[in-house]
Design a protein that fits this description.
Elements (H helix, E strand, L loop, with lengths): L1 E5 L4 H11 L5 E6 L12 E2 L11 E4 L6 H11 L2 E4 L6 H10 L4 E4 L5 H17 L4 E8 L9 H13 L5 E4 L12 E8 L5 E9 L2 E9 L3 H14 L5 E3 L1 H8 L4 E16 L1 H13 L5 E7 L5 E8 L3 H8 L5 E14 L9 H10 L7 E4 L3 E7 L3 H12 L3
Parallel strand pairs: 1-2, 1-4, 2-3, 4-5, 5-6, 6-12, 7-9, 8-9
Antiparallel strand pairs: 7-10, 10-11, 13-15, 13-16, 14-15, 16-18, 17-18
């Protein structure tokens, strides 16, 4: 892969240049910077867009937001895919990036570190678990030459957490003005600048008598450089569109676990009313029967078809409870439950279709299927369960 670095003379541009010059599979073929000195680099350095005469596979931008128009103009005119690793863009500039992504592939992330993107995922999980009774404060620290504050990463973290809270939170940038108590629906964001700090982000969940803190510290700019190379590798052959780190995570880890459980009974209740369903579920609960894989299809007459699974050992209880019911039902015992899980499913299209296609290669009949953002579960015959697990693990690279 041939890379052109925009902003090659800056701290991150130089780090990326160093990483690529020591890379056996990818190479830097040139760079753009109005301040960089040619003698500092072994590749051509350009200070005018009109002078660029190279044909890179991908452009990686580690410059400043003011350079965006030139970067987009060049990338669009040459149909070159683009990684934007610069932060601090205005909303107007972001709209320009979105418009350009309709013609070329653009990868944009506030932070190229995989560790930071793991931090964001953990932050969202913590917000779901702890709820709004814990107040959130984000503290970011960077070197004294960083211009934008707060960092793009801090803002991204706040936005991701706010999604969990259904966007009900407002952002408070520091607390230098006014004498007032902290509001309830607020995420605090604070910036520290000094010395040579590469980058540190702390997320505090502050409750009554306890504080939970998630933290990430970059100890070298090379982690960001390596991340941008990975983004470039990901995007170099992509069609037009706007991509981010979630797409990489989803690509690599869409499925992380495949398991099977034998001894499953599938029950379907046809044209059942809400009242009948509640009575039946209460009876099942009173008999200590656990219900799994529930799916429902509503009808216009306010009845529904309900399917669910139970353990084979509880099938006799279910038959007894269903014996005198007024609605039709079916009971199939001796099946197996196949579970496919992975956090990356949330960020990648077509995982369910891929799973079903793979299962068809081993002639697996799907008796019922349920899906969520991170899990697919289906019932198959016991005699094909091992083949189903094997073909899925092989294709998704699960050990």
């Amino acid at each position: 892969m041939k890379v052109f670095i925009w902003g090659i003379g800056g701290k991150m541009g130089r780090s990326l240049y160093f990483v690529l010059t020591n890379n056996k599979t990818d190479e830097v073929i040139g760079g753009f910077d109005i301040f960089a000195k040619q003698e500092d680099f072994s590749v051509p350095i350009f200070s005018s867009v009109d002078e660029i005469n190279l044909a890179p596979d991908v452009i990686i931008d580690f410059s400043r937001p003011e350079a965006l128009d030139d970067i987009l103009g060049y990338a669009l005119s040459t149909k070159t895919n683009l990684v934007i690793a610069t932060t601090g863009h205005s909303q107007e500039q972001i709209e320009k990036i979105k418009a350009a992504s309709r013609e070329i592939a653009i990868f944009m992330s506030s932070n190229m570190s995989l560790g930071v993107n793991l931090l964001i995922n953990l932050a969202k999980q913590a917000a779901r678990f702890l709820g709004t009774s814990y107040e959130v404060e984000i503290i970011e620290q960077h070197h004294n030459n960083k211009v934008d504050a707060p960092s793009g990463t801090a803002i991204s973290i706040a936005k991701e957490i706010n999604e969990v809270y259904e966007d009900k939170m407002s952002f408070c940038y520091g607390r230098h003005a006014g004498n007032e108590k902290r509001g309830n629906n607020v995420i605090g964001i604070h910036a520290i600048r000094g010395g040579t700090i590469v980058g540190k982000h702390d997320i505090m969940y502050i409750g009554t008598d306890e504080v939970v803190t998630l933290s990430h510290e970059a100890q070298s700019r090379q982690i960001l450089a390596h991340g941008s190379v990975r983004a470039a590798q990901f995007i170099q052959d992509k069609q037009s569109g706007l991509y981010n780190m979630k797409d990489i995570v989803g690509k690599d880890r869409s499925v992380t676990n495949v398991t099977g459980l034998k001894g499953v009974t599938l029950i379907t209740l046809n044209k059942i009313t809400q009242t009948e369903l509640m009575v039946f579920l209460d009876d099942m609960g009173n008999n200590k029967v656990n219900i799994d894989m529930v799916s429902e299809v509503l009808s216009h007459d306010e009845t529904a078809d309900i399917s669910f699974t139970i353990e084979d050992g509880h099938s006799d209880i279910a038959r007894r409870l269903l014996k005198d019911c007024s609605f039709k039902y079916s009971v199939y015992t001796g099946l197996a439950k196949l579970s496919i899980e992975g956090a990356g499913m949330e960020h990648q299209f077509g995982v369910t279709a891929r799973v079903l296609k793979l299962l068809s290669t081993v002639n697996a009949k799907i008796w019922t299927i349920t899906t969520s953002e991170t899990k697919i579960a289906c019932c198959v015959a016991v005699d094909v369960l091992a083949d189903c697990i094997a073909v899925l693990k092989k294709d998704f690279g699960v050990n």
